[in-house]
Write a structure and sequence with these properties.
4 copies of one chain form a homotetramer. Chain A has 5 helices and 18 strands. Chain A is of the alpha+beta class. The first copy, chain A, is globular. At the C-D interface, helix 4 of C face helix 4 of D.
Chain lengths: 320, 320, 320, 320
């Protein structure tokens, strides 16, 4: 990749709206609305636009009717219009050129491109601050809308985990081009990597890549939605249980980043996490912790065993 | 009161269904269903029958349309038909005779009478174990219905606080006639009592009497509904805030019994608590802790100040 | 067993002091004091007497120096001296006669006998209410001592799980002789039982028997200590992890009784649980839920997988 | 202030070590060690250096023996040596020049200067990553030391509140010179400000100024230490209560930033908060919410009343 005259450290502000493909749009919608507690903002020809009560932007999730489950796209809001332009130039100069797409419901325009594993990402700066309608106006004016208190009651998206055939290439792409900081890496004996946890902020993870073990590419491992407390993760387990939603793992605690997790599959097949916690990194000059395969295999610290499918399953589902 | 040949220690099993009067039946219903998370079991000519997800009986709350707010009745389930008959005899022998009422929706028949301050109470034994319809069947068969996860998500009624002009007389009535154990008393210099916390079980409070400071009688101070954690009490505060429900006090912690509380008024005016915790009493021979007025005034331990209205307001509202 | 003219329903008040044998008395003491947060009341020739901050009695745990780990004894406080005498008569009339032992540090005298699987139990009524020394006097006078806030911060013992070669015989022994209520049973195709959860109160479990799968008898599965919240169970996992204490299972949630658990082994080898929650049973006439083996094998509801050793390991450790 | 050619947005990394003056060094030390759960790193001629278990640096608090309570200094770690040099130049060019001080126990050298109200601040970049001794080595290598689990169990400092005669001047100083973002302001009718909540990161508050209502200057309102959950704030209230520490306010929830709080005074008189939560700000272009005095007076949302002394008391204590 070309050397970059401008240090890209502070160019990404936060994860923005994302799109999820589902073959069962009605059931998937019910999962996000009734069980996660999100609200419908708009019904479109191809699906629905949703928001969570902690989103400052107008919407954050586009559910798209499709033949099979998978990632539509992920996105980042940039810190400024200049940062957006510069990063687009960098992408185009480095063989990752994409295209601009029109604004959608107050957010965008977007520049869409593919990461090294073929996942679609969008960059944007322009957005619209959500103004709640009268019946959802919050009492405290620094909130964006009234508290939901329905189902798992998710506040906003927390992080994103993608599968990649070359985790290291993906990590280096985001570090070099966008200044993401990497907090943990699993390094295998052949110097390839089994996982990388990256963030644009003090939060321990925003974007994770873990090893793709099938012939697929561009696959989604999971989106994680934040709840305010570990207690709400435990409550979510009750809610999913009685709603007959498949719980793949948790509630328990991860070793990497130390977040508290609960993994389900929404009815369309995409893995969705309800998450709380994970450490914060305050140091301005952190070094990633590099796990050897042997050390990682021991999984120090408490936490339930993770089922083998957790390391294989992704969407779209592929023959191995 | 007449001496009782049979020790009445284990005659009350638990608080049963209660009725609340409200002048705003629609808004009150919405409060209990949308904000507390209860379900409608039946609509009747005079109002609604509701249940909470942790009730093993078919229903637990009767909302009754009325001119003004107040207590309809409270009730106790007896441990056996024999205990019911014996206690009715005791009531009738001691000047508290009432009358039998017909079964309602699977619970009863009831014997209804008035306590020394004029609050209606019902005793019953016959009841119907709730069988959830297909869409509310719980996954774990020891649960009574599926988890609700809506609003404050109350599990069942926890305790009941009545105002009484003669707290001591009320306390002695329940001790002598029904074997309630008293865990805490506030005793004033004139030997009258400002409060008494009583229970039929190891839980620190089921029935509380506190001093009536107006000319009223038979008034309700509050019903408390249990949530599973203190975190859920804090969540409830968010829910009530944005629903524009008046919060009178809390979330905070009481000195007596040490429960964590949040007091609101349902739209009809009745005070409703969302509660968690309070100590358990395992000793088979406990002595009540007797607070002097001076000691009580200091309110040892942490906890927010209680507003003066908490000690005056009850339903029905009366001129002082 | 002989028919009993007096219904034994309310004869046991609560689990009382217990004794645990350990081959590593110093390390075991450090586990209970530094990690669980208990206090030493007395050092004796054979070990130590400890208390938890929520105990109303003077002490609740006797750690005894021994060749190998295991149960010293469990105990029950009786509701009255009369109940104690009657139940001793019943034991002696039914072939379970034992002997009286002297008071220890303000509790007892005790009647000690063996349950059908050979576990030592003690019954007693006389006890001494703990009076905290000046430096542990609580601010709220209804507490027994000041709050500890050290390590896992256990409040008191919650329940006891014993292994038994004939679970059914043990269950029937306690039901017939002491009126324990059974809330859940796992029934095998041959009518034998793999587990029984019993209680003297509204709490879902005080005494559990599960199947002994080795040639041993009289073995301890675990003692469980209560913490106030699920959050404290999660905190305890951090504490045990960094103290290099073996965590066998959890934190997670059980299907039976639905308590939140964390299982460790104290350094002497006895399994100790840190527990919170579990349902309450208010009905005066509950029927046990009877799991078939097939239904139990599915383990409905959320919760981490239990490792196989959980069903085998007990103390003393025996060759299978 | 001079216009600044380099945008100072990302120059402060996080709050660093601070010093607190106390006239009761032994009791203050016991407060921080036994009740907050901090560890002593070093005893010096003038007092003690302490750390919390979540600090990545070697120490974070210097307790200094003094005639009266108050702030020694607060500090910021800079993102780079260059940022440190540039900001020192800016200070000197704008009349806030100070002096360099020698490194202390692995941190520094420091540049010390006074903010517009006369509070001492230090800037530094050089630091030493803490290496735990053998007996405090954590099991998970991304932790800095083993989990403490003692007392309130604070993880690290969360934010700092200073009193200022001219809040607005202080706010503008940090915005112009150091790029702090301001998330909330209370603006009075005369355009002066009663409070300003600022941060260098997505966390809602790191540095707060509120109105000095006495003749004092350079006074400390409080330091806040983070605990992991609201439950731990509630536990801390138990701990402080039985330790006879004065609780000024809470546990409850603030309207500004919405953090959960508990305010005590350490024995030397400085106000210390145990805190959890508060919103995060992800937008790269946030506008501060500006409260009018009238709107602020209503304090929308739940939360206990704050006592009047909260708005007056600071250290050092001054005659009004």
């Amino acid at each position: 990749m070309t050397a970059d005259p401008v240090a890209p450290r502070h160019v990404l502000a936060h994860l923005g709206p994302h799109a999820i493909l589902t073959p069962t749009i009605d059931e998937t919608l019910a999962y996000f609305v009734d069980l996660l507690g999100m609200d419908i903002v708009h019904e479109s020809d191809d699906g629905y636009y949703l928001r969570a009560f902690g989103d400052y932007e107008r919407w954050s999730l586009h559910l798209i009717r499709a033949d099979r489950a998978g990632l539509g796209y992920a996105s980042w809001r940039m810190v400024s219009p200049e940062a957006l332009d510069e990063r687009v130039q960098w992408l185009e100069a480095n063989g990752y050129g994409g295209h601009w797409t029109e604004p959608e419901l107050g957010i965008g325009r977007f520049y869409e491109f593919l990461d090294p594993d073929g996942h679609a990402f969008r960059l944007y700066y322009d957005t619209e601050r959500y103004v709640a309608p009268e019946d959802k106006r919050p009492v405290i004016p620094t909130n964006f809308q009234s508290y939901v208190g329905r189902g798992a009651n998710v506040r906003h998206v927390d992080h994103l985990n993608l599968l990649a055939r070359d985790v290291r290439a993906c990590r280096e792409f985001w570090e070099a081009g966008f200044g993401l900081r990497t907090y943990e890496i699993i390094r295998l004996p052949d110097e390839s990597e089994a996982g990388a946890w990256m963030s644009s902020s003090i939060q321990g993870h925003e974007l994770i890549y873990t090893q793709e073990k099938t012939s697929g590419s561009g696959r989604l491992h999971h989106f994680a939605y934040l709840v305010d407390t570990r207690e709400e993760v435990l409550r979510a387990a009750e809610i999913f249980t009685d709603a007959r939603i498949y719980i793949e793992a948790g509630p328990s605690r991860h070793t990497a980043i130390q977040g508290f997790y609960l993994y389900t599959r929404e009815p369309g097949g995409n893995r969705i996490e309800v998450a709380n916690g994970g450490y914060l990194v305050f140091a301005p000059d952190p070094k990633p912790y590099i796990w050897t395969a042997a050390e990682w295999a021991k999984k120090p610290g408490w936490g339930a065993p993770i089922p083998p499918e957790f390391h294989i399953y992704g969407t779209p589902v592929v023959d191995e």
